[in-house]
């Protein structure tokens, strides 16, 4: 009897095998990628006597090579490499454009491009963040390799590429969306500034528009939108649709002129007068234009809500975008822009020294704020209402 029976009928002589050993030897490297230099090296190392088949047909069709075989040293000399690489490439036949070797068309046989294709661990995805991370990782990897290539060898001009057509489209759309949004806000600021001629009011209006666009962007991102062609077109409309309410209210504030007394920035009474005048102008702007702005936003909001009931996905997307945009535009315009104008609007000096900045009194009392129609009736130092 066997005093030490083996309980395992199939013992493993290597209890801790490494399924993916890191191998640097060309002879044992697993060929899980298309590296043409690897195939070319094996072709050059082949014995000259083993470069043809044994039967007569094989020897006729593929005669034994007397050159470009039997090498034992790698890398090869420049002369051997240039002489043999063309012969090896011709024997492989045609291949698709994104693999293999590209030669100069002038007949010199010089290699212009070497394409090495490998397998990636990242699965293809239409999601922009996944494609962006994959492209940056591949680019950083190849940049690290080409940076150590000999200068002037051509290898230092290598670049990374893959199936990135849709990612390239997404990247261009993303850049275009940011540029269109930024340019639209700048143009909105320029137009409001040109029409109102008030720097503070124009800046506050443009800031409000920017906050509206950023808030809408945050909402649609949280809803899981990925930036595509349709989403980019929708996003490019954000500034144009959100600037109406802020522009109208700031314009009404600027043109709601009031007579002010003792415009002094260096006294408490003067500052109180300036703040009080700005608050009254904001109140009058909301009183005269608030209902119009609110109803315009409400009707557009109802339109967006109806689109949410559609079955077409694009209509649902646009309905969500329009509803959020209208709700935030009205909210920011009334609850952010107007309080800011009431607080900081006096910095614009909404009166001219010639007709508005001199104290106007009647029967010993300071004149209450007047509408622009009444201000136009001012004649010199006298005033008729």
TrEMBL record:
Annotated GO MF terms: transmembrane transporter activity
Family matches, as InterPro entries: Dispatched_Hh_regulator
Region annotation Disordered: where it falls in the sequence: 1-23
Transmembrane segments: 202-221, 233-259, 289-309, 315-337
GO biological process, one term: smoothened signaling pathway
Membrane topology: Multi-pass membrane protein
Principal location listed in the UniProt entry: membrane
Gene Ontology CC entries for this record: membrane
Subcellular location: Membrane
Domain of life of the source: Eukaryota
Biased composition (Pro residues): 1-20
Keywords: Glycoprotein, Membrane, Transmembrane, Transmembrane helix
Keyword Transmembrane (UniProt): yes
PANTHER family: PROTEIN DISPATCHED, PROTEIN DISPATCHED-RELATED
Protein name: SSD domain-containing protein
């Amino acid at each position: 009897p066997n005093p030490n029976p083996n309980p395992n009928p199939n013992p493993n002589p290597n209890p801790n095998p490494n399924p993916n050993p890191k191998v640097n030897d060309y002879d044992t490297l697993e060929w899980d990628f298309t590296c043409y230099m690897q195939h070319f090296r094996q072709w050059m190392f082949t014995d000259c006597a083993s470069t043809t088949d044994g039967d007569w047909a094989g020897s006729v069709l593929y005669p034994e090579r007397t050159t470009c075989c039997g090498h034992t040293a790698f890398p090869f000399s420049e002369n051997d490499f240039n002489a043999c690489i063309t012969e090896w490439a011709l024997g492989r036949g045609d291949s698709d454009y994104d693999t293999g070797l590209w030669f100069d068309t002038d007949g010199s046989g010089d290699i212009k491009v070497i394409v090495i294709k490998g397998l990636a661990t990242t699965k293809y995805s239409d999601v922009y963040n996944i494609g962006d991370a994959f492209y940056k990782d591949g680019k950083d990897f190849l940049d690290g390799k080409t940076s150590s290539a000999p200068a002037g060898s051509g290898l230092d001009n290598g670049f990374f590429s893959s199936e990135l057509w849709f990612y390239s489209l997404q990247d261009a759309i993303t850049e275009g969306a940011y540029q269109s949004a930024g340019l639209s806000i700048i143009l909105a600021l320029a137009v409001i500034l040109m029409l109102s001629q008030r720097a503070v009011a124009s800046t506050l209006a443009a800031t409000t528009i920017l906050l509206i666009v950023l808030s809408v962007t945050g909402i649609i991102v949280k809803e899981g939108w990925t930036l595509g062609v349709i989403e980019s077109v929708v996003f490019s409309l954000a500034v144009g649709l959100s600037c109406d309410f802020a522009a109208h209210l700031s314009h009404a504030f600027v043109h709601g002129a009031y007579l002010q007394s003792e415009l002094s920035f260096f006294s408490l009474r003067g500052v109180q007068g300036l703040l009080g005048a700005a608050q009254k102008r904001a109140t009058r702007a909301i009183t005269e234009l608030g209902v119009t702005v609110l109803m315009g936003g409400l009707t557009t909001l109802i339109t967006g809500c109806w689109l949410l009931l559609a079955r077409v996905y694009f209509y649902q997307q646009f309905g969500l975008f329009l509803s959020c945009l209208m709700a935030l535009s009205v909210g920011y315009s009334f609850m952010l822009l107007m309080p800011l104008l009431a607080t900081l609007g006096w910095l614009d000096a909404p009166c001219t020294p010639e007709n508005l900045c001199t104290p106007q009194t009647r029967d010993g009392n300071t004149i209450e704020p007047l509408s622009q129609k009444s201000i136009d009736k001012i004649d010199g130092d006298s005033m008729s209402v």
